[in-house]
Automatic annotation (TrEMBL):
Source organism per UniProt: Streptomyces sulfonofaciens
NCBIfam families assigned to the protein according to its UniProt record, in alphabetical order: glmS (TIGR01135), PRK00331.1 (NF001484)
Active-site residues from the entry: 594 (for fru-6p isomerization activity)
Protein name per the record: Glutamine--fructose-6-phosphate aminotransferase [isomerizing]
GO BP: carbohydrate metabolic process; fructose 6-phosphate metabolic process; protein N-linked glycosylation; UDP-N-acetylglucosamine metabolic process
Length: 599
């Protein structure tokens, strides 16, 4: 159980707990803080052995992360145990109702209400599955629930609405988890539950129903990675491993997308060529790093297809009444496929008649399931909270979508598409070369550990790269960092420049758009004249930047539009090293969680 929780710890890590059905009752342990605290408690006072158990690692929403608020939660009699992800929005009314019937609530959580409600329903129907269905019909909000009852040994019941739950089907054993990583060491056969479904899992049987009790089926699939992919493999941090895996991730995401004639085939796309020809606007919705991938995609989509493209933070999207219709293609980018803001944005887009294409890294997750089409990135599991390899593969997928749109609409000739594909095929090697030259970047990062602020500048696609560099530094090193469009600097932010403030500048290729390049070289001179310490990322052979770079980071020459694939990598390494020297938890930065399944 603890081994499974370890693999889920990236999803939330402020407290953890387990409960075991044993000797006709329930035994439980829970602790605030990281899983190691729970492990220590279990080492000091082991729980009795049992074959039915549940556990949880928490990212607090209701109530601070202390022992009492850690999951599982029990009913008054201590015979029902529940774990929960998500938010039960009507929990205040439920708490008042339960208190009115004499229940004693021992935590501040919304989850505990479910334990009491389940106990009540079970006492009249003596069927844990039915009790769960009855309770779920009363709950509002988002939830994955898993429960056991000491009077129903041998069965574990799960339920889901707007939050993930997968079943692992082993031989004579079964698992329920929010992510296959939890059980991948035991089985690669998974069943993904649909929206508003309840599952009853027994040693050798899995039964699925809707909340209304009607029999239903989950989608069975085989997980195409194994346990080694979910382990650190000799690296100190998952983040380092995932940075190193980027060449493979990029190459894997390109695999099988080109036919013998050199045309792009996106079989999984499930939106017909004629529908794509009708598209008159592309809207990209995403959060955080995935949003930055979307910002870069806009340049490629508009350049290659001449279709207007908007990029919007998913959390803002539906609140501004966006203009969408049957000819709008909405692209939802999400590594986890579970980000609630992105899910809500895509639902809004579909309600307005837009087709939705998901770009996603997680098979069996909610966002692709609710989209009209999906293009999977093949980054493998990304476990470090800060996104790295998923970002690069999201970019590759975006370029593929842009090229495909250009191909089916005839705005790109076959040889133009093939030329870009060739460039993309060379990126894995280019990233490998970047990775091989990162020691000076790490050394530089170590000298900046005491800085208060780091600024990032870029133009064109370099601007989102600058935003991404700043985000990585904020979340990992807890330093103030901001990304700006280099040309915007003189409209205000240049006032931030003072002696020795580090400024990272992403310089576009001098070959592609020389005007762009010349402008940014001027911007570097402007900030250097005001005392900035310039850290310049420029392609090999770009000599114009040399006189103005206090530190020069070389990346292989790439076409301008594809440069983010190489330019982002030193920024990941830079942030990771700064986090390390500042003594931060690289894989699990404070206050964050990998899948943000609440709005
Ligand atoms: C930053 C980071 C986050 C995610 C964002 C979206 O390093 O990882 O900003 O990119 O939370 O997550 P997904 O892609 O899972 O929707």
């Amino acid at each position: 159980m603890v081994a499974g929780l370890k693999r889920l710890e990236y999803r939330g890590y402020d407290s953890a707990g387990v409960a075991v059905l044993a000797d006709g009752g329930l035994a439980m342990a829970k602790r605030a803080g990281k899983l190691v605290n729970l492990e220590k408690a279990l080492g000091d006072r082991p729980l009795p052995a049992g074959t039915t158990a549940l556990g949880h690692t928490r990212w607090a929403t209701h109530g601070p992360p202390n022992d009492a608020n850690a999951h599982p939660h029990l009913d008054d009699s201590g015979r029902v145990a529940v774990v929960h992800n998500g938010i039960i929005e009507n929990f205040a009314a439920l708490r008042t109702e339960l208190a009115g019937r004499g229940h004693v609530l021992r935590s501040d959580t919304d989850t505990e209400t479910v334990a009491h409600l389940l106990a009540e329903e079970f006492s009249s129907c003596a069927d844990l599955g039915e009790a769960m269905r009855l309770v779920c019909r009363r709950l509002e909000g988002a939830f994955t629930l898993v429960a056991v009852h000491a009077d129903a040994p041998g069965v574990v019941v799960g339920a889901r609405r707007n939050s993930p739950l997968v079943v692992g089907v082993g031989e004579g054993e079964a698992f329920l988890a929010s992510d296959v990583a939890a059980f991948i060491a035991h089985t690669r056969s998974a069943v993904e539950l649909g929206q508003d479904q309840v599952v009853e899992v027994r040693r050798d049987a899995v039964a699925v129903t809707g909340f209304d009790g009607r029999p239903a089926r989950g989608r069975a699939y085989h997980v195409d990675w194994d346990v080694s992919a979910a382990e650190k493999g000799g690296y100190d941090y998952f983040m380092l491993k995932e940075i190193a895996e980027q060449p493979k991730a990029v190459a894997d995401t390109l695999l099988g997308r080109i036919d013998e004639a050199g045309s792009l085939v996106l079989d999984e796309l499930r939106i017909s060529a004629s529908e794509l020809c009708e598209v008159d606007k592309v809207v990209i919705v995403a959060c955080g790093t995935a949003f930055h991938a979307g910002l870069i995609a806009k340049y490629a989509i508009e350049h290659w297809t001449r279709i207007p493209c908007e990029v919007e933070l998913a959390s803002e999207f539906r609140y501004r009444d966006p203009i969408l219709g049957a000819r709008t293609l909405t692209v939802a980018i999400s590594q986890s496929g579970e980000t609630m803001d992105t899910l809500m944005a895509l639902r809004h887009a579909r309600e307005q008649g837009s087709k939705v294409l998901a770009i996603c890294n997680t098979n069996g997750s909610t966002i692709p399931r609710e989209s009209d089409a999906v293009l999977y990135t093949h980054a493998g599991p990304e476990i470090a909270v800060a996104s790295t390899k998923a970002f690069l593969t999201q970019l590759v997928a975006c370029y593929l979508v842009a090229l495909y749109l250009g191909q089916v609409r005839g705005t790109q000739w076959g040889d133009e598409v093939r030329a870009v594909i060739r460039d993309l095929a060379g990126i894995a090697d280019a990233v490998e070369r970047v990775l091989a030259t990162m020691e000076p970047v790490r050394a530089l990062a170590r000298t900046l550990a005491d800085k208060r602020t780091v600024l990032f500048l870029g133009r064109h696609v370099g601007h989102p790269v600058a935003l991404e560099g700043a985000l990585k530094l904020k979340e990992l090193a807890y330093m103030h960092a901001e990304g700006f469009a280099a040309g915007e600097l003189k409209h205000g932010p240049i006032a931030l420049i003072e002696a020795d403030v580090p400024v990272v500048v992403v310089v576009p290729s001098p070959a592609g758009r020389s005007l762009l390049h010349d402008k940014i070289v001027s911007n570097i001179q402007e900030i250097r004249a005001r005392g900035a310490r310039t850290i310049v990322i420029a392609e090999e052979g770009d000599e114009a930047v040399v006189p103005y770079a206090d530190h020069l980071i070389r990346v292989p020459a790439t076409p301008t539009l594809l440069q983010p694939l190489v330019a982002a990598v030193p920024l990941q390494v830079f942030a990771c090293e700064l986090a390390t020297v500042r003594g931060n938890e690289v894989d699990q930065p404070r206050n964050l969680a990998k899948s943000v399944t609440v709005e």
